[in-house]
Amino acid sequence: MFSENRIINIIYNHDESSVKTYKLLKKKLIERGFSIPETYHEKAELNICIGGDGAFLRAVHRYKFPDIPFIGINTGHLGFFQEILPENIDDFIERYMDKDYVIEKIFLVESNILTINNSFKLLGVNEIVIKGIKSKVVHLEVFINNNHLEKFSGDGIIISTPAGSTGYNFSTGGSIVYPSLNTLQITPLSPISSRAYRSLLNSIIVPGDIFITIKPEYRYENSILLVVDGMELKYDGITEMKFTVPKKTISRLNLDKNMYWNNLKSKFL
Ligand code: NAP
Q1: Pairwise CA distance, residues 202 & 38, whole Å
Q2: Domain residues of the chain, as ranges?
Q3: Ligand 1 pocket, 77 CB below 6 A?
Q4: 53 given a catalytic annotation
Q5: CB-CB contact of 166 with 175 (8 Å)
Q6: 109-244 CATH, one of 3.40.350.10, 3.30.1330.10, 3.40.50.300, 2.60.200.30
Q7: Going by CA atoms, what residue is nearest to atom 17 of ligand 1?
Q8: pTM (global) more than 0.90
Q9: Of the candidate ranges 22-26, 75-79, 157-161, 168-172, the one whose mean pLDDT is the lowest
């Protein structure tokens, strides 16, 4: 039996370097008195995710946005979320034992989707992207707190969180938003701005207590593609999508308050 407060989940992908890191980390944590369950334990005190940002995103979704804080060990990917390098495992364990870290909230994005017959709720860590299927131009009416903003025409719209601002949002010209800011960013994907259609060309950052409502205008088919943290979901007959920052957050350990700025420089410049 595991003692209730000394359990750590280690979540790892099957890359050779991740498996090697898992074995070493598990051995070292057991030596320090922790229990490492074979399968995900809901009463663990920490989730250590080995891999890249993609592995972290998949773990958050697989374990349904748990309250257990995450920390990541980066094994050869971009690893923007993943703070520890495999060679620094010993230092991490010492600092974890000494409680030498802060726990940071990660704000999420929530969407309530209404279709002709149904309703769904989606949660994302990085973003929710609205696209047309079959590469068609999408036409979307955008409202902020019920105020009509624009009729968007183009490839789609990204609604990103601060944590996701360095992901897809950044590649499409959106701004980087510091993770402690409770905001959402609306970023256009190839917006058309012509005599036929006029869409905002830049992103807008809105406070997290605001509702962004998007209503599709269908021309060729009645399907919209939604991409949540890289996972595609196709819905028919969507009438309305409402986005906001939910009260629910996830959390991560931060061992170095300057890491964000060092990461920006080393990973993007
Ligand atoms: P993926 O292959 O898992 O990720 C694509 C790249 O984005 C990887 O290098 C990943 O880092 C990096 N990444 C993920 N989240 C990030 C963040 N918050 N800040 C900085 N970089 C981040 O792709 P996927 O499965 O399709 O989607 C996962 C995420 O990738 C999405 O949520 C989206 O933000 C991003 N994405 C980016 C583009 C683009 O830039 N054009 C297109 C699609 C998706 P690792 O190498 O460490 O995994």
Answers
A1: 47
A2: 8-106+249-268, 109-244
A3: yes
A4: yes
A5: no
A6: 2.60.200.30
A7: 167
A8: yes
A9: 75-79
